[in-house]
């Protein structure tokens, strides 16, 4: 084989490798944009449903697509295409309205036109108190972030969606609110960790306020990995903190 033939063969092999890499990256981009996107939970606002260190997949097609479905949210169009409305009780990833470069995750409790209020820690939707039953206590800092027992309540929304919430502080700062009227094309979000969640009960710029439909990224679907103690999945030597019991748990 001549030098030219060897060079041509190496060049051809390099081109094929580059082509495979480019195709793989394009496929990953399509999957991330249209189908699934991984997210990690950085804060405790959704405890006990989601814990810091949970890694989950979000379904991107659940509510259609907006510019925020694309990496870096390019302003190439406004509104949503193939849009559908979230169900009350969905756990949703969305762009923080005052700063869309930030991703937040909360539960949808208010739909467009709803009247939302909290009184004595109880959620009220359109004048009707949402059933709220104390189901016990949790005394596990990995779940509650505090070294003491914490009351746990089960809330059941009008459409039957039921989930647990934490009550870290009786008569907390947002346990009594004014009545909010959700504008058309917007949603009211709350964290399950009711006394440690910056959500729609708080106004921008520090709070979430109402969340426009365009800001919805997708619906939280399933936990595929979880690790405690602030460890990174890449720190293999800290895998003793992996929460195996949370693997493949659906998000409700």
List the helices and strands and how they pair.
Blueprint: H1 3-35, E1 36-40, E2 54-59, E3 91-95, E4 103-110, E5 115-119, E6 122-125, E7 128-129, E8 132-138, H2 141-144, E9 150-156, E10 162-167, E11 180-181, E12 186-190, E13 211-212, E14 216-226, E15 249-250
Antiparallel strand pairs: 1-2, 2-14, 3-4, 3-14, 4-12, 5-6, 5-11, 6-7, 8-9, 9-10, 12-13, 14-15
Distance separating the two termini: 63 Å
Number of self-contained structural domains: 1
CATH level-1 class:
Mainly Beta
CATH superfamily, please? Umud Fragment, subunit A
Largest sheet: 8 strands, antiparallel
Please provide the ordered H/E string of secondary-structure elements. HEEEEEEEEHEEEEEEE
Strand content: 25-35%
Q: In CATH terms, what is the architecture?
A: Ribbon
Determine Rg (CA atoms, Å). 22 Å
User: What class, by secondary structure content?
Assistant: alpha+beta
User: Low-confidence segments, ≥5 residues, pLDDT <50?
Assistant: 3-8
Mean pLDDT: 90
Number of strands: 15
């Amino acid at each position: 084989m001549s030098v030219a033939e060897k060079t041509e063969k190496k060049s051809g092999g390099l081109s094929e490798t580059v082509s495979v890499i480019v195709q793989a990256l394009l496929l990953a981009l399509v999957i991330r944009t249209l189908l699934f996107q991984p997210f990690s939970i950085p804060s405790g606002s959704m405890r006990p449903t989601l814990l810091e260190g949970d890694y989950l997949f979000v379904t991107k097609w659940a509510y259609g697509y907006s510019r925020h479905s694309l990496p870096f949210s390019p302003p190439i169009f406004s509104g949503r295409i193939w849009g559908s409305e979230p169900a009350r009780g969905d756990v949703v990833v969305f762009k923080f309205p005052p700063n869309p470069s930030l991703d937040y995750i909360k539960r949808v409790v208010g739909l467009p036109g709803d009247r939302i209020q909290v009184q004595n820690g109880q959620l009220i939707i359109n004048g009707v108190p949402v059933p709220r039953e104390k189901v016990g206590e949790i005394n596990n800092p990995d779940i509650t972030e505090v070294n003491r027992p914490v009351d746990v309540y089960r809330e059941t929304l009008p459409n039957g969606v039921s989930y647990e919430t934490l009550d870290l502080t009786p008569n907390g700062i947002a346990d009594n609110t004014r009545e909010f009227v959700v504008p058309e094309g917007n949603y009211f979000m709350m964290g399950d960790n009711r006394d440690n969640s910056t959500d729609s009960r708080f106004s921008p710029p520090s709070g979430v306020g109402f969340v426009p439909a365009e800001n919805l990224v997708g619906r939280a679907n399933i936990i595929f990995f979880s690790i405690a103690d602030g460890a990174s999945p890449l720190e293999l030597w800290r895998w003793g903190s992996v929460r195996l019991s949370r693997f493949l748990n659906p998000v409700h």
